[in-house]
Structure prediction request, 125 residues.
Amino acid sequence: MADIEPLFRSRQRAMPASGPSTSPQSPPAMVTFDRRELDRILDLYGRMVAAGEWRDYAINFLRDKAVFCVFRRAMDVPLYRIEKDPRLARKQGAYSVVSQTGLILKRGHDLPRVLAILEKPLREV
Prediction:
């Protein structure tokens, strides 16, 4: 019975004596949409669902960017991707809208202006 080793070790032993630190070994935090950004995106999504244009969405938070994908059908490839990449914030802008083919439709610093490309003009009834 002395030859048995535990499958996992407690975190207490794995941590250095100095405690947790922000060393290069620790994984970087994920990029996310904040509440204001997500509210703006979901507002547009709700209007497009009501218009029958969009049907489903997916959110992906990665180390380098956050992605909101919009689908026309659930089993389809994304119709549009709304991306937030903080590395580009000072250059071209952190926000971009990417088409199904990978073409960047709009990029900028201000999310509402970037999302304006997806807005449908109002029709007279």
Summary: The first helix runs from residue 11 to 14. Helices lie at 11-14, 35-50, 111-115. The chain has a mean pLDDT of 81. Residues 35-118 form one domain.
